[in-house]
């Protein structure tokens, strides 16, 4: 179903991390049968060098807490259908 994870979106978004920690991510609503596989997202992130500490469904978003390949803490929200990044936050260690 899902062809290829948009790696350039992840790199671009993480380069421009939001400083707004408390604002909720605004993800589009899709029927569950249209959601991309959680495993697809996890595998793509791990292939990019991310370590996932926590993966969850948050409202209408997939959300991960973990570390970037540089070892920095991140919180990232993804669109459940396209797996595009909706919001990314760099967290202080």
Automatic annotation (TrEMBL):
Domain PepSY: 9-88
Source organism, top-level taxon: Bacteria
Signal listed as a keyword: yes
Signal peptide: 1-23
InterPro entries reported in the protein's UniProt record: PepSY
Swiss-Prot/TrEMBL keywords: Signal
Pfam families noted in UniProt: PepSY_2
The protein's name in its UniProt record: PepSY domain-containing protein
Upper lineage: Bacteria, Pseudomonadati, Pseudomonadota, Betaproteobacteria, Nitrosomonadales
């Amino acid at each position: 179903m899902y062809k290829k994870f948009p790696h350039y979106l992840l790199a671009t978004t993480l380069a421009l991390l939001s400083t707004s920690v408390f604002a909720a991510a605004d993800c589009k609503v899709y029927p569950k049968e249209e959601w991309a596989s959680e495993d697809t997202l996890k595998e793509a992130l791990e292939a990019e060098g991310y370590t996932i500490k926590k993966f969850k469904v948050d409202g209408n978003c997939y959300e991960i807490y973990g570390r970037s390949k540089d070892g920095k803490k991140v919180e990232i929200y993804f669109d459940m259908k396209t797996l595009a990044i909706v919001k990314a936050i760099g967290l202080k260690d």
